[in-house]
Every structure is written in C-alpha cells, then in structure tokens.
Amino acid sequence: MNEVEAKKPQESLQDRLAQVVELLHRQKLVEDLAHRQEGHNQDLVEGLVHRQNLVELQRKLDELHPADVAHILEALPPEDRLTIWHLVRSERDGDILLEVSDAVRETLIADMDDQELLAAAKEMDADELADLAPELPRDVVHELMETLDAQQRERVRSALSYEEDQIGALMDFEMVTIREDVSLEVVLRYLRRLKELPGHTDKLFVVDYDGVLKGVLPIKRLLVNDPEKQVAEVMANDPVAFHPDEDAYDAAQAFERYDLVSSPVVDKNGKLIGRLTIDEMVDLIREESESEVLSMAGLREEEDIFASVWKSVRNRWAWLAINLVTAFLASRVIGLFEGSIEKLVALAALMPIVAGIGGNSGNQTITMIVRAMALGQVSIGNTARLLRKELGVSLVNGLVWGGVIGAVAQALYGSWSLGVVMTAAMTLNLLLAALMGVLIPMTLARLGRDPAMGASVMITAMTDSGGFFIFLGLATLFLL
Amino acid sequence: MNEVEAKKPQESLQDRLAQVVELLHRQKLVEDLAHRQEGHNQDLVEGLVHRQNLVELQRKLDELHPADVAHILEALPPEDRLTIWHLVRSERDGDILLEVSDAVRETLIADMDDQELLAAAKEMDADELADLAPELPRDVVHELMETLDAQQRERVRSALSYEEDQIGALMDFEMVTIREDVSLEVVLRYLRRLKELPGHTDKLFVVDYDGVLKGVLPIKRLLVNDPEKQVAEVMANDPVAFHPDEDAYDAAQAFERYDLVSSPVVDKNGKLIGRLTIDEMVDLIREESESEVLSMAGLREEEDIFASVWKSVRNRWAWLAINLVTAFLASRVIGLFEGSIEKLVALAALMPIVAGIGGNSGNQTITMIVRAMALGQVSIGNTARLLRKELGVSLVNGLVWGGVIGAVAQALYGSWSLGVVMTAAMTLNLLLAALMGVLIPMTLARLGRDPAMGASVMITAMTDSGGFFIFLGLATLFLL
C-alpha cells in the first residue's frame, strides 16, 4: 500500500479525537430523538439533521491519517467504534486495519463480510497480507491467495511460515535492487523510471545475477558522489544484514543501537529475500516494553480496554489463581503459629508490615533485574556481584526501616523484645526479597521462560509466606 | 560527529561481550600473578603476557561500534568498566559518552580530567554538546564554549534553555536547506558539492530568504522526478513540523504514528530552527516505557545496575518509606479488631488472603489503565464505562475465587458462616481494588502527576487496609 504523506496536524490529536466523539454523541442524540418521535411526522427534519451530522463526521474522518483513525477506534467503546468504522470509506479499511491493535482488529473484522474483507485486502502488499491473514476467515484467505500472482503468493506463504517473533514475519519485500557494475548515473536514471520509491528507502541493495547481496548503496552516497563512479566503488561492502529466522527483537536492538533506517534480510546462502524497516522495529520496541509491564503484573496479553468482562476475566484469571494458591500457602504458614497469636495478639497486627515491606522491596529489585536482563546487561558472570549489591541495599533498608518500625512497635506495645524481633524479622525478610528478586527472573530465563512473567505475583508470594514465617517464628522462639 | 557506518556483526553482541570479559579476566589474572611474584625476577615474561593481552583487548574494542562499547561498559562492574574505558582510544571517547546511560556517563566523566573531557567534546555537534554539558564540570563547559564559533555557541545555549522533555532539547542542527525556485538538477548538483549528508536525511528543507519553512522535498521525490522540474512543483507543502517548546513525547508518538524519519522544527514565526530524527525518538520511546515500569515499582529513576549500595538506597528509599507508613496504617486497622482475633484466631490466618488477592487484582487493573492512559486512550469521558467494566471483572472474580476460598475455609475451620464472610469480603475487596485501580492513576493525572507513580505501592496500600477492614469488620459483625 502506498505510504501516506502525513499532513501537519492543525490541532492536537486529542482535540481531533474530542471533535469526533462530540459529533458522534450529537449523532446519537439525534437518533434517540428520531426514535422517540417515531410517527410524529417530523421525519423530514430529523432526517436532514441526521444526514448533515453524518456528512460532517465522515468529512472529519476523511481528513485524518489512517493511524489517527485507528487511534480513535481504539479509544471508543464497541458500539461507537462500529459506528465510526461504518463511516470510514471502504478504500481506507485496509490501511486502518493494519494500524489497530490485534484486540481491536478482531472486533472490526468480526463486523465485516467476506466481500468487504476481500476489498480491504486487495491492495495490500505481501507482508501486510501475512500480518492480517491469521485473523481472517479461512475462505477469505483462500480466495485472496487465488487473486495473487505466483511471486506474491510465495511471499505471503514464506512470511506466514515464521513465528511472530522472527524476522521473517516482519520483513517486507519492497526493495530496490541494483547491480554493482553500473555507474551512479545509470542508477539515478533507473530510479527515475520507477516513478516511486518504497517508504524508508535510505539505501539500495546491490545484488549479483543470482540475487546474492554484495553490498548496499546508501542514498546519501548516491547523492554526493560523482555520477561517473561505479556502484562497486561507492557501496558499503559489509552492511548489517539479518537472517529471517533470527529473533526480531535482536534486530530491533540493532536498529536502535546502530541508528538504522532499513536493513537487508538474506537467506543462508546470502541471497537477498527481504528488508526490515525502522517503523516495524519501533512498533516492536514499544510492544516489547509493554508486554514486559503486562507480564510483570500477571496479565496474559494486551487487552482492548473495552474488552468484554468475560474476555478480561479470561486474560487475568491464570495469575489470580496462582496468587490464590500462594496466598493460601501464606495463610497456612500463619496457621502454624495460631497458638502464638492467641497468646500475643499484637503479632497479628504487626505481621503484615513485615510481609508488605518485603513485597515492596522485592518488587523494586525484580523490576531492576528484569530491565537489566531485557537490555542484555546480566548473564555474563555478574550474578554474584548483583546479588551482593541487592543484599547490601536490603541490609541497610532492613536495619534503618526495621529499626524505625521496631521502635514504633516498642512504643505501641511497650515491649523492647517485640521491637527487636520486629527489626530482625524485617531485615531478614528484606534479605529474602533481594535474594528472590535476583533469583526468580534468572531462573525463569534459564528455564527459557520470560523473566518478567508474573514477577510481581511470585515475589509477593515469597515475601508474604517468608515474612510471616520469619516474624512469627522469631516471636515464638524469643517472646513466648 | 560523523555517523559511523555500522559493520555487519560477525558474532552476536553477547559473544563479543563475552570475549572482552574473558580477556579482561585473563588480564586481571596476569596482574594478580605479577603482584604476588614481585621481585621474583619474572617481570620480563609477565610484562610480555600483560602487554600482549592489552593489545588484544584494545584491538577487540577498536573493532566495535561505539554503541557496542557503551553496552559493554554498562554491563561491567565499576573497576572493570574503568579498565576498559582507559583502553578505549581517546578519539572515540566522545562517541561512547553519548551512547551510555546517564548513570554510567557520570562514573566515566568522574574518571576523566579536564583535558580529556575537552578533547572528547571537541568534535561534537551543538546538540550533542548540549546533551553532555549538564554533566560536565563548569569550567570545562566554559572553556568549550570559548572554542565554538558564534552560531554554534548560540545553538548550544538554545538547546540548553529547554527542559529535558521538550523538543528543543532533542533537536539537532544538521539540516540541508534549499530554495523553492531552483530545479531538481540544481539541487542534485548542490548536494554533490556537500560531499556528505547528515545522518537520517530523508528529506531536504525548503526555506525562503528569511529562513521560513515553505515545505519539504523528500529525497524519494528528488530521485524519481524529472530533474528539469522546479522544487516548488515537487515539494510537500504542508509537512508535519514541530515547535521547540512542545512535549518531546508527543513528537515521538507522531514519528511512530506517521512513520517519520526526520521532521523540521520551526519557531512561532515558521522559521526553520532545527530537526528531529527517528533515532532520538526511538531512544525516547524506550526511555518512556522504562520509566513507566520503574515508577510503577516506586523506583525514582534509572539505576546503574552496579550502582553503589548507598546510591541504590537513595533511589529506592522514598517509596519504601511511604510503604512503611501505609503498612503501619494497615496494621492499625488490624489493631482495631484485636479483640475479634483473640476470640477467633482463624481470622488472623485468613485475612492476608483477602488482602493479597485484592492487591494482585488491583495491580492488574492499574497496569491496564496506566498503559491505556499512556497511549492516550483514556480521558474522553469514558471513565464511567471503564470503571463499570473493571467492577464487572472484579465481581466475577470475587464470586468465583471468593467462593472457592470460602469453601476451603469452611472445610478447614468447619464453619459455614466463616466461609460466607470470606467470600463476601473477597468480593468487596476486589471491587475496591477495581475502583482504586481506575481512580488512582486518573486522580494523579488530574493533579498533573505521572499516573504510574508508585502505582503498585498505592494500590497495595488500599487493598491491604481495605481488605483487613472489610474482612475483620464483617467477621466481627456476623461471627462473634
């Protein structure tokens, strides 16, 4: 699909969003009125107002970039979302479908019939089709594939054969390739004949007769060098290139690190098969950080904010269930000490402080470690050192804050020994939090799992059960 | 500073990192040996091995892109970091300083004398100098400014006059400007005379004689159009442009949304004053998502993973202290019901379950909402709807999981009424968690604060105190 040249936004996005919503509400008001006055012979006036409103709304939508329409759709509750979706001109459907999140895309596709879907998909490039295909009805995909030429079909198949997190699933096929034995002048003339260059073309790919990548010719070099020179003299011989089965996130980090705009993808024989561009990488970087946040909180996946209650419950239930089990175990730990609590009921009031501070501190540690792991800063034999540091931080915090709360406990309950037990328990639980905050994500990573997965739930489980056991255990030993 | 053409990494970054670390350790071993055998007349051999090692290490470092050296520095503990830093060729110091995180940059700068700093900064562009200036010693900055010409000095001053989160602080000044009344042929000849184009030049800026931006000429259009055409015929008249005092994060979202590579920055009179590029925006997008993760966990700022214990304590203490206060309040809530607990000690064992599930569920809700707010999907009068949905999710979860745990409580303690109280308390606390999970970030945003700020600590505080109060209150009313 052609790149859309972005227009300067006259108003901020939020303003435009607000305008659309206002028009939408006015529209609903009019419809409500029309409904209530049915048969009152006011149809004509109502009809006019109605139509006027719709026209204005449609005009607003037409002016917006597909990405902005997508943003508006994301922010609207389902009914309003569909009202707007129906007002969008059908030739823009495809562009917008490619911009919305997976969750919202599902709701939009569910609302379209096969003909509409086919029309929306008709103008898409192979890589865009492959993006969309998994969510389309089977027969639509089948029909679509029929309409493609052999090369396009092969490309869609190839893109579909990769996992979502592999480079092959993210590459596109819009490349300008040239030979190395021609002059820059010839290249310039060739480009002029193309009429249009693909988006994000900051370099041309130099290939031999077998399609093997020989180098890249940055457009910058093409522009500043003497047109008489040969491509081979000017090109970069040893460009950053990727393989389709590599991890896409590694590629995103390379784009970020080396400030790339586009990069060739080659197969194992060095043959050029596709291209990665910075826009896909930016999306990936954002998605990765988001999924880190979500998985730390124990959410399975991105959630449409207006998803149905039932869908949300399913997204969240797994970690809640795990939390229930861990909370139950913590409760059983307390159960072990019911005798002690009966003798000294103050223990019941003080124990959540020990557990709570441990959880908070553990969450800080685990957040730090997960982040450092995501950036590739951990895993080179510096675990022991990291652990030492985190234990040091916990020791300081335990003695200081544990001391404070110990003093408060002494003042409240008039027992010095209770204060000392409190301080000791807090320090020990903070040390446990540091230990687990480092070990949990590292163990998950070693097991090949996402180190952020439910990090918050797991560390809290440790510091709760651990905190109760340490505090009630010490109290039973020394106070009773 | 010239853009470095990235070389294809022969091995993965992790491999290269591991190699450097291995060389570093071998080096330390040799030094240890030399130290222990002092006076044993083996100096000659040791000296040789020592030197050989250093040479190899230095060669490895020379081969690496500055961003990769920066990455290695980030991942090393302070002593090793400085060893490597001393081995880096001084002409690369500047490039590397610009790539490392603020926390690590501080430690590196602290190790350099004024002469070294001046040398490193000498080749920087105005925007890069402005990046670095706040962390340099005053007299170094002063001396640096002396060496600049008037235009450069003005640019540094201007960049320094903006807040860190304003576009003015992120723009660079490397722009190619052209006039609209020349032919593309003339533009092409002009570019050839420049010898080199700035990085990320995907468009040329068209200005009039007063420097007012008239449009942009995408390089793509320059290449595919007839050289006889005038710039004015081919240029885009109404490009996305930014003002220096706008929020940089909004610009980053625009880059992401409209797939921009570079964009002009104009003052209020429309005069072109700088340029934004995608590489800065990518860094910003990553930083924003990271700071969201960190602030949810109650960490004040990014922390060098090998920061000293003391520094880490300072970074984390504020939210720990707040947590201490809230935990103390929760403890006082329990204190209110000490009489009830004395009568029915099972309450002490069961109450953390109610609080814990509430905290977990509340964290899920608040994570969702914070994320939706960051994406600008909340704030258009859909609060009530969101709240309704979250309350719905909580109600389902409360009845289901509360029912399960209520049944377990009945089985354990043989009391039906205890089970019912448990179910009711869990449901109510989950509803409270949903309410607070929506209201806390929205209230923070309305107060002009970061909605993610300490979100996790605050929601846990609510669900702890609330959970204890609800459960113990219901138990006191109905069981005793």
UniProtKB/TrEMBL annotation, chains A, B:
SUPFAM superfamilies linked: CBS-domain pair, MgtE membrane domain-like, MgtE N-terminal domain-like
Locations listed in the record: Cell membrane; Membrane
PROSITE patterns: CBS
Principal cellular location given in the protein's record: membrane
Protein's membrane topology: Multi-pass membrane protein
Keyword Cell membrane: yes
Limits of the CBS domain: 171-233, 235-291
UniProt cross-references to CDD domains, sorted A to Z: CBS_pair_Mg_transporter
Pfam families with a match to the protein in the record: CBS, MgtE, MgtE_N
Cross-referenced Gene3D superfamilies: CBS-domain, MgtE N-terminal domain-like, SLC41 divalent cation transporters, integral membrane domain
InterPro entries to which the protein is assigned, alphabetical: CBS_dom, CBS_dom_sf, Mg_transptr_MgtE_intracell_dom, MgtE_N_sf, MgtE_transporter, SLC41_membr_dom, SLC41_membr_dom_sf
Transmembrane segments: 317-337, 344-362, 394-413, 419-440, 452-479
Swiss-Prot/TrEMBL keywords: CBS domain, Cell membrane, Magnesium, Membrane, Metal-binding, Transmembrane, Transmembrane helix, Transport
Protein role: Acts as a magnesium transporter.
Record family assignment: Belongs to the SLC41A transporter family.
PANTHER family in alphabetical order: MAGNESIUM TRANSPORTER MGTE
Oligomeric form and interacting partners: Homodimer.
Entries under NCBIfam families matching the protein: mgtE
Protein name as catalogued: Magnesium transporter MgtE
